[in-house]
Design a protein that fits this description.
Blueprint (H helix, E strand, L loop, with lengths): L5 H17 L4 H8 L3 H8 L7 H10 L4 H12 L14 H10 L4 E6 L10 H10 L9 H12 L9 E7 H5 L5 H14 L5 E6 L13 E5 L8 E6 L2 E5 L2 H17 L3 H17 L1
Parallel strand pairs: 1-2, 2-3
Antiparallel strand pairs: 1-4, 4-5, 5-6
Length: about 280
């Protein structure tokens, strides 16, 4: 049987944590009961590790869960047993987790310093980014990872569509990636996507000066179900990781609000991109 999706594992983990705390047990005590470490219990509760059927039964027995709740959580563990489409694209484990959550999100809010967001990249631009990032992407993995990026973008045209609110530094639309022709095609694509009702694209201009996230990029994910709390994702030169701490996610949300307020309006952002595109065409 295949594992549940990342979001399903997270829901199950939250339920198990609530049961453990109601039983006034520590993660170490729960782990000892099933012969696991407290770190394993913590990772299960955070949705990072899949819980086996045997361990789940033992934990529910320990927590004295009702028969109805036991049946519900066992169903949640095996609900929609399927491999995510992303599993066949040889994505790095740290990014595969993110894509799993993104595939179930309703809203993506993103800030990028140097790059056009992955959900808006053309094949040529994406290939150039992966080639230059050879410390993360082996040559034989470039093709699959570019294909995965294009697959992710289909959600922008799904029914219902994924909503994307993207803010990028002016550097992201000025830096020529893959050559002038590739960059011109990329900016044309950005302008086309920005016309969609479910896409908001803004540029944070150099003229804005210092800003709230000069150290890096960030993504916030919001899900259709209200009980599924927002998640955040940040990346760096050697990978990336998910953030589920409510305080840290909320803090990043405030930063994104500030960046959005400091950025150009969608109309002025379009005008700036059009002017840069015209410069590329003249060159």
């Amino acid at each position: 049987m295949m594992a549940a999706t990342p979001l399903q594992r997270r829901r199950l983990g939250l339920e198990l944590r609530a049961l453990r705390e109601a039983a006034r047990l520590t993660a170490q005590e729960a782990g000892q009961h099933i012969g696991r470490s407290h770190a394993t219990i913590s990772n299960i509760e955070r949705g990072k590790h899949r819980v086996t059927k045997t361990d789940l039964s033992a934990l529910l027995e320990l927590y004295d869960a009702t028969p109805e709740l036991r049946a519900l959580l066992h169903n949640l563990r095996s609900e929609t047993p399927r491999r995510g489409w992303w599993a066949t694209y040889r994505l790095p484990s740290w990014f595969e987790t993110y894509v799993g959550f993104e595939s179930e999100a309703a809203l993506v809010r993103e800030f990028e310093l140097e790059l056009v967001p992955g959900l808006m990249q053309t094949p040529g631009y994406a290939r150039a980014v992966h080639v230059v990032g050879s410390h993360l992407t082996a040559p034989d993995e470039v093709g699959p990872q570019v294909a995965a990026r294009l697959q992710r973008q289909r959600r922008l045209f799904a029914n219902p569509p994924l909503t994307l609110h993207a803010v990028v530094s002016e550097a992201a639309v000025r830096r020529v990636v893959g050559g002038r022709k590739t960059m011109a095609e990329q900016l044309e694509h950005v302008l086309e996507l920005a016309e969609l009702d479910n896409v908001r694209f803004q540029v944070l201009p150099f003229a804005a000066g210092e800003h709230a996230s000069m150290a890096g990029t960030m993504v916030l994910l919001r899900f259709p179900e209200k009980h599924d709390a927002d998640l955040a994702y940040i990346d760096h030169a050697l990978g990336g990781h998910m953030i589920d701490s409510p305080y840290e996610v909320a803090t990043l949300g405030v930063l994104l609000d500030a960046l959005q307020d400091a950025a150009l309006s969608t109309r002025k952002s379009r005008e700036l991109v059009e002017s840069i595109l015209e410069e590329l065409r003249r060159a």
